[in-house]
UniProtKB/TrEMBL annotation:
PROSITE patterns: GNAT. GO terms for molecular function: acyltransferase activity, transferring groups other than amino-acyl groups. Residues 16-171 form the N-acetyltransferase domain. It comes from Escallonia herrerae. CDD domains: NAT_SF. InterPro entries: Acyl_CoA_acyltransferase, GNAT_dom, Plant_NAT. This is N-acetyltransferase domain-containing protein. It comes from the Eukaryota.
Length: 400
């Protein structure tokens, strides 16, 4: 998500003041910066974020967080956010690491290529080091050459994973659900048990998963399975017994944290959106798959913790995606997208409904060891871009 913000034209670092965010004086400046800095899935679609009066909202739910701003000549010209948590890396339980995540790096378009982005990241890394963080990591669009140059070439980050962001519009027509599949909502305690049992060794699995599931923004966890004759719905996973095939997913209401607004899209996308909404309003019985109006602020649901077991699990994953779409279409007035992110080599990709125009086939995660010890050296070898992950990737919804 990081915008272009690296530096070939040098500005003296002493002219840049990096300090903590102050909500009393900085809120308007940060919100204005967000409105002027585009993010998005690629060359054809650009999005802008609306933090709804709370620029710190995207990190507020993390265990530890910090927000820094950059000033130049008394003007607010940059901002960066960071979070700290404990996650699983590679071979649990020995490799439970403390990681710092960098997000929301913005630099004013008029002040880019002057070293401001570099200075913001450097100061945030100092906070990570002071809090005994093992690794810093970040995510950006793979085609964002300026961001990749900043983190990889200048700051020593290593290309780590290329997950896929899958996006599906939430129009007002509900999907038909297969009659032979049961979809049940789990209690938070049940969901936590399943996640620790089946995804506890997943890369970047948060050790405080209970706090994620219990957060007010987490709408719940659902399982889909083909019921066994004679068994009741409430018996899923009872005494450690599970159906041959099942799937689960949790849902996070990102629209309650911040909104998105489309600032640019191909003309064909705009025309299709207008014409499909018109046809849908005139002939609703045909259930035209209309494209919602993305040019006004909207929210989205984020599906996380997706897991599947068994030979029929692909169908069950699709069923869960349809269930979440139907939730978005009927329960939330401004939710216009259903989004998820999976590992680049994860077989789930083909089971998740998505629109290619809105999705990002290769997001880019970069990582950097912050401790120079034997453990970091050993894991550094596992972070080669050619290495294919052996397990799924857990994307924390608090960092979306």
């Amino acid at each position: 998500e990081t915008p272009e913000c690296s530096g070939s034209k040098k500005m003296a670092f002493e002219d840049i003041k990096i300090r903590n965010y102050d909500g009393r004086t900085d809120r308007a400046g940060v919100e204005d910066l967000e409105r002027r800095c585009e993010v998005g899935p690629g060359k054809h679609v650009f999005l802008f974020t609306d933090t709804m009066g709370d620029p710190i909202c995207r990190i507020r739910n993390s265990p530890m967080y910090k927000m820094l701003v950059a000033e130049f000549n008394n003007d607010l010209v940059g901002v960066i956010r960071g979070t700290i948590k404990r996650v699983t890396l590679h071979n649990p339980p020995k490799n439970v690491a403390k990681v710092g995540y960098i997000l929301g790096l913005r630099v004013s378009p008029l002040h880019r290529r002057r070293g401001i982005g570099y200075s913001l990241v450097h100061h945030l890394e100092e906070w990570f080091v002071a809090n005994q963080v093992d690794y810093a990591y970040m995510a950006t669009e793979k085609d964002n050459k300026a961001s990749v140059k900043l983190f990889v070439n200048k700051l020593g980050y290593v290309k780590f994973r290329t997950p896929t962001i899958l996006v599906h519009p939430a129009n007002r027509h509900c999907f038909d659900m297969p009659p032979d599949v049961t979809v049940a909502k789990l209690k938070v305690e049940q969901a936590e048990l399943l996640y620790r049992m089946f995804m506890g060794g997943t890369e970047f699995f948060p050790r405080d998963i209970n706090k994620v599931l219990g957060n007010k923004l987490s709408l719940g966890t659902w399982v889909a399975y083909t019921p066994v004759r004679g068994a009741s719905e409430g018996e899923f996973g009872l005494n450690g017994r599970f159906p041959d095939s099942w799937a689960m997913v949790s849902v996070w209401n990102s629209g309650s944290v911040f909104k998105l607004r489309m600032g640019k899209a191909p003309l064909s996308c705009f025309l299709y959106g207008v014409s499909s909404r018109f046809m849908d309003s005139v002939l609703p019985c045909f259930k035209v798959p209309s494209l919602p109006d993305f040019f006004h602020p909207f929210g989205f649901y984020f599906m996380y913790g997706m897991h599947h077991e068994g030979p029929l699990s692909g169908k069950l994953v699709r069923t869960l995606c349809k269930h979440v779409h139907n939730m978005a279409a009927t329960e939330s007035g401004d939710c216009k997208l259903v989004v998820t992110e999976v590992g680049g080599s994860d077989g789930l990709r083909s089971c998740i409904p998505n629109w290619k125009l809105l999705s990002c086939p290769e997001d880019l995660w970069c990582i950097k060891p912050l401790k120079d010890d034997e453990r970091s050296t050993r894991i550094r070898g596992l972070m080669k871009p050619t290495r294919k992950p052996t397990r799924a990737l857990f994307v924390d919804p608090r960092e979306v």
